[in-house]
Input
Amino acid sequence: MTNDQAARRYLGIVRPYNIALERLEQAINGGQSVTVLRRRAAQVATTNQTQIRQLTDTAWPRALRGLMGRLKAESLKAQRHWLGAARARTRDALVQEVLNAIRYDGKPAVGKIRTLLHLEQYDEDDYS
Output
């Protein structure tokens, strides 16, 4: 896999998760009901699970393997919180699960991945 192919593959893998995450953030900030927030959180959990599987199933270039492993590990840690947010009964409980999940955002690995792939740094406006 070339660097350009890896960059396209990486962006294709993380895009659905980033979109779902941004939609959840907008719903929280927009004061949406707990029902809507749970649905959005469930979408984040689903896209995160898909992201984990795709990160695992891709034969990354050697220079990226460790970083992709770290990103996958962080995503796995976050997953239980995304699932908890999807089951939360109250807005406060849901927001707390989201805050717990985003502690495992993988930023150190993501920054290095994006640098190695010659991609611009993550910008949430790209997904809103």
The CA atoms of residues 85 and 94 lie 5 Å apart. The radius of gyration is 15 Å. The chain has a mean pLDDT of 94. The helical segments are 3-29, 34-57, 62-87, 91-102, 107-116.
